[in-house]
Amino acid sequence: MSDSSDQGYAFRTRAIHVGNEIDPSTGAVVPPIHLASTFRQPGAGEWGQFDYSRSGNPTRSNLQSTLASLESGVGALAFSSGMAAIHCVTMLLENGDHVVAGCDLYGGAYRLLHKICNRSGIDVTLVDMTDVDAVADAINSRTKLIWAETIGNPRLTIPNLPRLATIAKENDAIIGVDNTFGTPALVRPLEHGIDIVMHSATKYLGGHSDCLGGTLAVADQELLDRLYFIQNATGAVLDPLSCFLISRGLKTLDLRIREQSKTALELSKWLEQHPKVRSVLYPGLESHPQHQVAAATLVGGFGAMVTFELDAGIQQTAKVCESTKLFHLAVSLGAVESLIEQPATMSHASYDAADRARFGISDGLIRLSVGLESFEDLQEDLASAIGEN
Ligand SMILES: Cc1ncc(COP(=O)(O)O)c(C=O)c1O
User: Fold this and answer.
1) 8 Å CB contact between 67 and 76
2) What's the domain count of the chain?
C-alpha cells in the first residue's frame, strides 16, 4: 500500500499495511523509528508537519493511523499508558460534572475516578452496565460521561453497546468504553455508536508484555481535536520505541486473539466441570448471563480472559495462584504467555473492601489471561495447581 488509505482492505491487511508505508528514502518495508525530539522548521513562524515530539512524532503518527483504521475512527491518540489515556478522557470534565461508570471496572480506573477526579469536584456513580434501566436511572442533569468496559473486569460482564450509546445520546453525555479485553479484532465500539474507545495497549495491542501504552480512538473530528489539545497540553504521550513495539504487535493481533480465544473457551468448558470450581465466568459459555449479547457483540471469538471462582477462601485461592508453573502469577494480561492472578488481592486491591464485596469480587475468584501455549499444557498446569491445594 503506497499511502495510508484503507482502500476497503480487511482488518488483518490494514493491521499490516496502514501506517506501515514503505519508507520513501530507503524502500525499507518497516518504517524507521524516529527518536528526534525536535524538527527543523522551514522558517521562523512557519511550521512543518512535525515541530516537537510531544505535539507530534512520525512514529507515533504511524501507530495512530493504524489504530484509527482498525477502530473505524477518524483518528487516534497514543499515550504513555492506559491510565494516561483514561485520565485524558476525564480531563474533558469540569468541576460539578458527574460520571456514571460500570461496577465491573479495572481497579486503576476505579481509583482514578474515586481518588483523583473527586479532587476536582467530579463525582461518580457505579452501576451494573448490563442493566440499561439502572444506567438510565443513575444519570442526572450533571452527568457528562458514561464509562464502561466492553468486557468487564474481573467478572467479564458484557454491556449492550448500542443501547448504552442511545442512552448517552439522549442525555447529552459522552460515552467512552475501555476495549482492552475485547480488542478491535473482536469488537469495534465506534461502529456501535460509542464516542470514545480506549485501550491499555500494554495488553493485547502490544501483545508481548514488553511495553506500556494507552490509546484513544474516536469517530468525531471535533472530539479528537479536544482530546488532542488535552494530550498536548498535559504531555502523557507514547515514546517512539513503544510506538514501534505496539505497531509491530498490531500486525499479529487478529491471529493472536482468535487463537487465544479458542484456548480460553476450551479451558472454560473444562473448568466448568471441575468439582472444586464453584462457577466460571466466560462470555463464550452458555451459562454466562450475557452470552447472547456477547455473541452479538464479539465477532469471531469471546476473548481470552477467563474468571472462575473456587470453593475456597482467600488463602487457599492464593495458594492455587502460586502453584502454577506455566501461568505466571502476575497482574496485566493480553500477552503470549499465560498469567494468573487473584483480583481481591491484586488487580482489584485498590477497590474499597465494601465495594469488592458489593460487586462480587470474592476471595475465591481467580482471573486467567490465556496466552498462546497449547491447551493441553495449560490444562495440565491448572489441574495440578487446583488438585494440590
Ligand atoms: C482493562 C484495563 N484498562 C486499563 C488498564 C490500565 O492500563 P495501563 O496499565 O497500561 O495504564 C488496565 C491495566 O491493567 C486494564 O486491565
Assistant:
1) yes
2) 2
Q: How far is the CA of 84 from the centre of ligand 1 (A)?
A: 10
Using the 3D structure, point to which of 214, 233, 250 is the last residue of a domain.
250
Do 205 and 265 belong together in one domain?
A: no
Question: Is 6 inside a domain boundary?
Answer: no
Atom of ligand 1 nearest to the CA of 86: 4
> pTM score > 0.85 for this model?
yes
Over the stretch 143-183, which tens digit does the pLDDT of each residue have?
A: 999 999 999 989 999 999 999 999 999 999 999 999 999 99
* Full domain range(s) for residue 17: 11-250
Nearest CA to ligand 1 atom 14: 332
What does the pLDDT look like over 213-263, one tens digit per residue? Answer: 999 999 999 999 999 999 999 999 999 999 999 999 999 999 999 999 999
Helix, strand, coil in percent for the chain, rounding step 5: 40, 15, 45
Dihedral of the CA atoms 382, 156, 193, 115 (nearest 10)? -110
